[in-house]
Amino acid sequence: MLPADHMASRGDDDHPHEECGVIGAFDVADAAAVTALGLHALQHRGQEATGIVTYDGARFHQHRGLGLVGDNFSDPQVIARLPGRVAIGHNRYATTGETVLRNVQPLYADFEFGGLAVGHNGNLTNATSLRRQLVRRGCLFQSTTDSEVFVHLIAISLYSTVVDRLIDALKQVTGAYSLVALTDEALIGVRDPLGVRPLVLGRLGGGWLFASETCALDIVGAEFVRDVEPGEIVVVTEGGVRSIRPFGRQLPRFCIFEHIYFARPDSVVEGRPVYAVRKRIGAELARENGVPADVVVPVPDSGVPAAIGYAEEAGLPFELGIIRNHYVGRTFIEPTDQIRHLGVKLKHSANRALLAGRRVVLVDDSIVRGTTSRKIVEMVRAAGAAEVHMRISSPPTTHSCYYGIDTPERDKLLAARHDVAEMARIIGADSLAFISLDGLYRAVAGIARDPRAPRFCDACFTGDYPIALTDYERPAENRQLSLLAERD
Ligand code: AMP
Asked: Which structural domain, as residue segments, surrounds residue 246?
């Protein structure tokens, strides 16, 4: 769900962020309340805006708002205005850019066949090109999100059923998408042919749920049934559940960064408990890059499971030497480098008693711009640490993601411009090491990375982009379009 003017803004610190969480409910009592709870569990996937669309057997009802789920759906009167046993919901990632209500999902439109609502997690890589063609054909776009192309492609399709129109639309888009869609007859869940983003199917009583992650099933006591498979369309109607595979089978390329950072640690992703995977990554990191030390300290919260795994493997004590203040948003929300520095200080503080005079191994999940690491190392030194060794539970992030995880433009990525020794100097650590790509594959899936057929999308570490980057290869044309888009 990337704004179409992404090309123009990418590279700015305040460029849009596009991670998202989706959920859908079919034949579930109080579907809106269940959907709101699921969205709350998926809050980590998007904090900018949130929305729910329901269908009560006769009419669609919708509510969208900027901010957190709790800010928008904790009022019982709001939920009461969303009647029905069928619903979809969407969380959008925080951005300081295009924070406008018309971009908040689920998108809804009336078609000749009736109403349709869509929620999208991921990012399309040919949305700008498609949008240009659609605008030329007379389509009137209401938002600047890439997801709206789905709506127009469905509207102009010559097929008669909704599902056939959806398949027609999906065959024209490239990129990463996990979708939930709602019609007056069906709840539909879709994953792109490579299955880059997650989507699971669950059962609640006699009804069905789709959700980005299993943590959204757990919060409402739903039972996990299975992952929606890469390239699969699952259609849930009164008649039951139907699976369609219009794309033929391809080798899946699930996003490995979901395992490292993005998914919630209590979720089970692709059959793998995220927490256990992160501990295994930490253990592998210790085996590959051990260093004499007195204590292992995570950069909270995302570094915690890997630090536990590291400490266990290294036989070192694990201590919460850095405390995180949970009332400050993620550092990425801050717009400028200057404010981001301030954000990190607001967010983390050192627990001096655990650090003074000790050789500290700091564990974090990733270095993106390097701002967090630099501040944390400085803070740990100021607390009196004798040595600071930084260990990172991902390989160096050398490439931007175009498939739905926010990363800055390549020239802002520390690892794109510097080798590990230089990075260590820049962040001020006595040593710095990253898990290797093979070590990561071993820890996540127990396999080696086959360079001819990698099991995951690891483009942010390798530059091996498995899906065509159509829009990003023709920036000039697209920038012109975004000027048009900005004028509307
Ligand atoms: P940086 O300060 O730019 O190096 O950012 C690194 C920190 O941001 C790490 O502590 C990560 O946990 C976190 N991080 C990494 N990727 C993302 C992302 N896509 N969105 C938000 N935070 C992230």
From this structure: 4-252
